[in-house]
Predict the structure of DNA 3'-5' helicase.
Amino acid sequence: MVGKRGAEELGDSSYPFKRSRNTRDDDDFVNVDDDAENSAADTSLVPRGATIKFSALARKLAQTRKPKDTDDEKDGTALSARQRKQDSLVSHIFMDLDFSWLHLKPDHSSRPLWISPEDGHIILEAFSPIAEQAQDFLVAISEPVSRPAFIHEYKLTSYSLYAAVSVGLQTEDIIEVLNRLSKVPVPESIVSFIRERTLSYGKVKLVLKHNKYFVESNHPETLQVLLKDKMIREARVHTQVADNSIKAATFTTSKAPVKGNLVIPGTREAEKKKEEAANGKGPTPAAGGANTDAELFTSVVGVDADEVDEDDENVHAFEIDDAKIDDVKKRCNELEYPMLEEYDFRNDTVNANLDIDLKPSTVIRPYQETSLSKMFGNGRARSGIIVLPCGAGKTLVGITAACTIKKSCLVLCTSSVSVMQWKQQFMQWSNITDRQVAVFTADQKEKFAGDSGIVISTYSMVANTHNRSHESKKMMEFLTSREWGFILLDEVHVVPAAMFRKVVTTIKAHSKLGLTATLVREDDKIADLNYMIGPKLYEANWMDLAAKGHIANVQCAEVWCPMTPEFYREYLREQSRKRMLLYCMNPRKFQACQFLIKYHEDRGDKIIVFSDNVFALEAYAKKLKKPYIHGGTGQVERMRILQWFQHSPDVQTIFLSKVGDTSIDLPEATCLIQISSHFGSRRQEAQRLGRILRAKRRNDEGFNAFFYSLVSKDTQEMFYSTKRQQFLIDQGYAFKVITHLDGLETLGGLVYKTRDEQIELLSSVLLASEHEADPGTDVRAGEGDLAGTITSKDFGVPGKMPGVQRTGGSLTALSGGQHMSYVEQNKSANKKLAREAAPRHKLFAKRDKEAAAARKASKT
Ligand SMILES: Nc1ncnc2c1ncn2[C@@H]1O[C@H](COP(=O)(O)OP(=O)(O)OP(=O)(O)O)[C@@H](O)[C@H]1O
C-alpha cells in the first residue's frame, strides 16, 4: 500500500518546473550581476508589508522595464515545435510537462513566478522577497490551488479573471504585472486568454437605483449587443427617455452629494478619522447617521475612487423588469457578459437608513479590512464572496459590511444555533438595539420595530415553501414585501443550489455577501455561486494568518493504528457499514485515543474528541469516563457540558459528534482528536480544524494546537483520510504520520489490553445493528440544532427532511474519495486472507448462525 503525505511532497508532485534549465538556457544567461540594478528596482518597488497598488505598480514596472524583455518575449513564445522538442537528458521524464524550452529572463532569480503556457498554472516562489506582494496580486487574478510553505500554485480561470475585473483591475495591468513578476515572458497563449476573458467582463453592471433595476455600461456598443438578444430585449422596460436609442437612455449615475470618504467602521482609517475629529482637525466621524459616511473611499488594494466611473457622464443604461432579473442575469452569463452587481447605497434615498455602527471598542483586523475594501472599493457595495479561514472572524466582516451599508439587512445561516450566535455577535460588536434585530426560526418569528432593521434566519426557513405555519407565512410576506439593502449569506458553500436560487429570487436585495472558509464542494456546484452571488472578492491565506497570530498554529498528525487480528478478520468479512464500525472501534485506536487524551490533559490542554459515529462516540466516552454531546443530547445538557468544558478544570475533554463540526466557538480548546469522520469530506476536516484555530492561547510564545486523526491501518479509512486532508494540505498544512506512540504499552489503566477484552468489544460491535453502524445516524435526533446541518425543525416540519434527488454516481464520488493517492496494491491478497481466515471465535459462530437464520426468515 502506498500512502502519500505531506505538503512538500504534494508541492513537488504538482510542480512541473522543478528540473533545471537545459544548456541552451545557460548559454542565454547574461551576467546576473549586470542585472542587479533591475532586480533591486523590482524589490524596491513594493516594500515588504506595504499594500500593493496594482495599477501604480504596473506603471512603475513599465518605467523600469528593459528592452531586453521584449526580445525575450519574442524568443520565448515564438519557438517552433521542433525547437521546443529539444532532447535534454531529462525531457523524456517530463514528456509534455517539459517546459525547458521557455526562455528564462536574464534576471529571473529576482522574479518569483513561472507561468505554464499550457494551462494557466502559475507557480510562485513563496520565499522570494516580493512574494507577499505577488501573492496579493495572484489572489486577485487567479485561484489558489495549493499554498504550502515554499512553493505556491495558482491557476488562471475565467472566473478568477472575472473576479479580478470586478474589483477594478484592468486587462493591461494584469498582463503587465504578470509579465514583470514572471521568470519567463508571459506566453502568448496566456496573454490572449486574459485579453479574451476580460474583454467583456466588468463591462456590464446590474444596478438597483431608486428601486428600479438598470443594466448599466460605459460602452454603448455592449448594451447594443445585449439588446440584440430577444430575451433581454423583452425584459427591457421602456421609459420615456429611453425609448429611442441607447444613447437617449443615457442614465447618468447620480453624483455623490458629498465628496469625502466612505469609511468602513472599525478600520484604521476610521480610527484616524475619529482621532482627527477628537482633535478638532477634521469632520466628525460617521455616527450612524444618514449621509455622514458619504465620503470618498480609497481602496487598500489599488482601486482609487477617483479612477472609478462614479461621476462618469458616459454611463449608459436601460431599465429591466424586476421579475426578469434572474433570467437576464443568466442570459448575460451565457453571452459572456456577466453582470457585476453593485449597490450605490449612499444614494439610495428610498430605503430607510438603519442606525447601526460598530461599537467604538471594535477594531477590525487588517485582513478583515482588506476583504471589505474589495467589497467597497469604489464606494458602492459589490456583491460577491469573501473566503476567510475558520475562526478568522467572518461574522465580524459581515457585521462591518452591514454597518457600512446602513440599510435593512437579512442574514441567512445554516442552523438555528448559528442564528442565535449571529444575533449575539451583532449585539456584541455593534450598537444595534435588541428591538432592531429580529429572529426568524421554527421557534421564534419576530419582526423588527421601525422602518429598518436586521432579520436573522436560516436558508431553509426562507426557501421552504411547503407546509408553512400561518405565522411563517406572515413572516415570509414581511421578508418578501420589502427591499433589503444587504443580504448576508453565511457558509455559502453548503447550501444546495436550488435552495439558493429560491432565496435569491424571492428576496429582493440590493447587495449580497457570501461568507465561507472552504469554497470546496464534493460536487461541481461551486460555479453556480459565481452566477448567483457574484465573484470571489477575497481569499485569505491560512498560513499567513497563523504566522501573524490571528489564528492558531496547528500541528497536524495522522496516527496509524494497526487493527487487532480479530477485528481485521471481521473487517474483511463484513459489509461496508459494519466495516466502518469495526475500524472506528478498533481496540488499538481506543488505546491511542486514551493515550493522547492523557498526554494532552497532563500538558494542560483542553481536548475535543470528534466522532461521526454515535455508537463509537458513546462507547469511547463511557469507557474513558468523559462527557459527550450528540444529536440526542438535550439543549440544557449540552449547554451544561459546554460550560463545564469552558470553565471547570475537572473537565478537560469532551466528546462531540458532528453536531460540533461548525459554529461552536470554544476558544479554550487546544487539541482535537478525530476518531471517526464522514468519508472523504475535505470540508468537514477543515471545519473541525477550525474549532482549535481560534484557541485563546494562540499568541503564547511557541504555542501550538494539535490535531490528530486516528486511522485504522490497512482499512478504507486510510483512503478517505488522504482525501480529507487535501484541502488543508493545499492551505499549507503538513500532516505527520505517527506509526507508533511511545509509552502507549506502559500506560497505566490501558483499556482493552487483553485479548478477551478485545473479543468482548468485538462482539458488541458485531451485535450492533446496521443502523448504529451508519455514520449518518446522528441526524435523526435533530443534530443541526447545534451544528451547521439543516434539520427537520428548520423546515418547520417535525420529523421530515426535505426531499432528496436521486443522482447517478458512486459512493466514492459522493463522499469525495476520488483522485486518491492511496492505493490498495494487492486487493486479492485481502480476499484470500478472508477466505483462509482461521475459524472464528465461538461467540461469532453463534452470531453468524443467528444472522443466517434472520436472513432466511426475511427472504421467506
Ligand atoms: N477583529 C476582531 N477582534 C477581536 N476578536 C475577533 C475579531 N474578529 C474575530 N474575532 C473573534 O474570533 C473568533 C472567531 O470568529 P468567528 O466565529 O466569526 O469566526 P468564523 O470565521 O465565523 O469561524 P467558523 O467558520 O469556524 O464559524 C470569535 O471569538 C470572534 O469574537
Observations:
- The two ends are 43 Å apart (CA to CA).
